[in-house]
Design goal:
Keywords: 4Fe-4S, DNA damage, DNA repair, Glycosidase, Hydrolase, Iron, Iron-sulfur, Metal-binding
Family: Belongs to the Nth/MutY family.
Number of helices: 15
CATH topology of the largest domain: Endonuclease III, domain 1
EC number: 3.2.2.31
Strand content: 5-15%
Order of helices and strands: HHHHHHHHHHHHEEEEHHEEEEH
Catalytic activity: Hydrolyzes free adenine bases from 7,8-dihydro-8-oxoguanine:adenine mismatched double-stranded DNA, leaving an apurinic site
Shape: elongated
Function: Adenine glycosylase active on G-A mispairs.
Number of domains: 2
CATH class of the largest domain: Mainly Alpha
Helix content: 40-55%
Distance between the termini: 66 Å
CATH architecture of the largest domain: Orthogonal Bundle
CATH superfamily of the largest domain: Hypothetical protein, domain 2
Length: 387
DNA sequence: AATACGTGGCC
DNA sequence: TGGCCAAGTAT
């Protein structure tokens, strides 16, 4: 067992712990939110909700949750779902490896657990995409096992209760909060205890504009008692997303279909369809002019092939590039900020062969394919200029 | 241990 | 607007 004192945390006496549990659960019984997944004890439902809720707001999740269970009502249906359908179910939610990992886990359940959701912490933890938080949440909520579920809410609430002087953003400090929860958790109602702390942390003890005087456990809170609520939790600022500059090629053929390409990378937006993208060092009005009028301009410097030229080579196409300017599309990921310039054109000649997975799609067909946000923004910006 | 991985809402 | 934040996990 981790020594809390070494982290400067003094745990409460047994009586205070019992009294805290009572106070918190009484508050939860009166104030818990009525959420779709709280009406079910089906571990599959709990699992879906917990994965969706990772780094994602409740209001965002609710419609996705309902539709997901409609499309994939059982573990088996999820295990057998085609990739396009899987990504379409998650389109717009973000962190798409979540749903890929879920399918892998569903296949694990079919092959290693005879199609029945594992009912032990060990078994649950063995599933792809389930880390310590989610394993604790499913164990406690669906199986009534006394396992802590330490998420950002719980760490924030605990940091204020005990004036924890450790960065909650540092993953290595999670074990401290885990150890505290192992002592605090109510073994009779572990699922409710975990959820009560999360509910408290997401509203009354929110990271911004908290209302600490409304907390049912303010008498237990060292930070509240000492007037140091503003100091907790400790959290280092995040790094700024790195700017990336891209040209998006929006190219249509004589039948009004547009060229889309599948992202075969296993990293950012894996498996999604997108307009062909070419990364450039940066934008400048000068390079933009050279791009648009490369036929007539006489560049002073020897530049490499233009994005248009590279594109025509890579995709075996000949394109009549249009002299149109579009609004720059911006999209911020957690770690990158994309700046996208749109270049439009019409193909004059196409080859059968292309060394990529590409598709010519009419706009009406777009909805049948998973398209992430940046591509939707590109399409909107393209339409705006074309109208 | 530090970084990659989405998106939308709020101020 | 830019920065912060949200029921984390994999590598």
């Amino acid at each position: 067992m981790l020594d809390l004192e070494k982290y400067g945390v003094t745990m409460w006496e047994k009586d205070k712990i019992l009294s805290f549990r009572q106070k918190l659960l009484a508050w939860y019984d009166e104030n818990k939110r009525d959420l779709p997944w709280r009406r079910s004890k089906n571990p599959y439902h709990i699992w879906v909700s917990e994965i969706m809720l990772q780094q994602t707001r409740v209001d965002t999740v609710i419609p996705y949750y309902e539709r997901f269970l409609d499309w994939f009502p059982t573990v088996e249906s999820l295990a057998n779902a085609p990739e396009e359908r899987l990504l379409k179910a998650w389109e717009g939610l973000g962190y798409y490896s979540r749903v890929r990992n879920m399918q892998t886990a569903a296949q694990q359940i079919m092959s290693e657990f005879e199609g029945k959701f594992p009912s032990t912490y060990e078994g649950i933890s063995s599933l792809k995409g389930i880390g310590p938080y989610t394993a604790g949440a499913i164990s406690s909520i669906a199986f009534n096992l006394p396992q802590p579920a330490v998420d950002g809410n719980v760490m924030r609430v605990l940091a204020r209760l005990f004036e924890v002087n450790h960065d909650i953003g540092n993953p290595s400090n999670r074990k401290l909060f885990q150890a505290m929860m192992e002592v605090l958790i109510d073994p009779d109602r572990p699922g409710d205890f975990n959820q009560a702390l999360m509910d408290l942390g997401s509203d009354i003890e929110a990271p911004v504009n908290p209302r600490p005087e409304e907390s049912p456990v303010k008498e237990f809170s060292a930070a509240y008692q000492h007037g140091t609520m503003d100091c907790y939790p400790i959290k280092a600022p995040k790094k700024k997303p790195i700017p990336i500059f891209l040209k998006a090629l929006v190219v249509q053929n004589s039948q009004g279909q547009f060229l889309l390409e599948k992202n075969e990378s296993e990293k950012l937006l894996a498996g999604f369809w997108h307009f062909p993208l070419i990364e450039v060092d940066e934008f400048s009005d000068q390079t933009q002019d050279l791009d648009l009028f490369s036929q007539v301009a006489e560049p002073i410097l020897e530049l490499g092939p233009s994005p248009q030229e590279s594109f025509e080579q890579d995709y075996d196409l000949e394109v009549d590039w249009q002299d149109l300017r579009f609004e720059e599309v911006k999209h911020i990921f957690s770690h990158r900020k994309w700046h996208i310039q749109i270049i439009a054109g019409r193909v004059t000649e196409t080859q059968e062969y292309a060394d990529r997975e590409v598709l010519w799609l009419s706009p009406e067909e777009f909805i049948n394919y998973p398209l992430a946000k940046p591509q939707q923004k590109i399409w909107q910006a393209y339409l705006k200029r074309s109208c």
